[in-house]
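U., I forgot to send this yesterday:
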Amino acid sequence: MAYLDTPYKKKSAVLTSVIMALIVFLIFTFGMKYFDPPKEYGIAVNFGTSEVGNGNTQPTEPSGAPAEQQPVEEVQDEVEEAVEEVQEEAVQEEASVSEDVATQDNAETIRINKEKEAKRKEEAAKKKAAEEARKKQEEAERKEKARLAAIAKKKAEEDAKKAKLDALMSRLNNSKGDGKGGGEGNDNQAGDKGDPNGDPNASGYYGNGGGGSGENYHLENRKALWMPMPVYDCNEQGTVKVIISVDKNGRVIAATPVIKGTTNSAPCLLKRAKEAALKTKFNPVSKASKPQVGHIIYNFSLSK
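Result:
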């Protein structure tokens, strides 16, 4: 039946039927009252034990051969005992049905609870795995961002250093007196007035060129503690000016050589001048916040 499509409905139908049967039984058993003596209807008849009789005295015992009769009390006792037995059987049957239903309900409840617990554990495991995966992803993204930031910072520093050196070289290379790259001097003509061996920071325009303290270098307020001579194994001659960058410890951290006063590029001279400049040491300055820029001049002559 469509109405008994679940175990719970079937159990409820059985229990309802048992209860209804018990109620009907009790109604027919105790609901109908027995009248002792029964109600009389019609014409009253005299009590007697025979079909014929004589006299006006009512005998208390039957005359003649009395018929065997069973007392009314015994009949009532038997009826009551029968009713009690039927009631006990009904109660036992109802208790048995209730026990069966309770047992089935407990088994069903235990099964449902086990399924719920298994589902809860599965969901908790999935949630934990997802959380761990999310943390790993965030950690990987954080490391990648830090790596990219470090690369960007390093590149920015290198670009700034390169731009500064390029600006210095551009100023030196464009100062040729053609009026295109700027100029310096006290005349009314374009050009870079001075001596090729001079100091670009000096205010005079005449006399012998040279660096600070009478040597061929210039680094404001700094003194060269060690300035090795370059290796001269080139079949070239000329003057090389090396733009240097010096840190607070006195180390030359960058060197850019520039040819001055030669008719060719003289790559050998550039190389040797740069090597010597990078080996030069200056006095340290602990308060220096950034590298200091200066230059060293090397004269290469085949006649010496």
